[in-house]
Amino acid sequence: MNGEVTYFELPSTDIESTQRFYGSIFGWTFVEGNFPGYSMIQGSEPMGGSPHDDASRHPRIFFAVDDIAAAVARVRELGGTAEDPVTIPSGSYAHCTDDQGVAFSLSQQAGRD
Length: 113
Known about the structure:
The two termini are 13 Å apart. The model has no long low-confidence stretch (mean pLDDT 94). Strands 1, 2, 3, 4, 5, 6, 7, 8 and 9 form a nine-stranded mixed β-sheet that branches. The protein is α+β, with helices and mostly antiparallel strands. The protein is globular and about 40 Å long.
């Protein structure tokens, strides 16, 4: 497990405001993602996205792992919580919290089974 930050999400309940705010600060542009209700952020490093109807109040950070199933099991062993992995075209991800309740996500690139 390498732990590199590979992706982030900025939750939004008003995507136009989110686009205006972060676009003005950082010069980012937002384009419709691969499914309705999700925008991809262009110009950021690492790449990011914004779920449109997400009332979460904090950005979500995704950390790279080589084996999503093993990483989810390890989070649980260490007293954290982890949702079951979800597979998407670019790989798999799982939303988690650490043993103190801090939210984060794990991601495994497609083809790294």
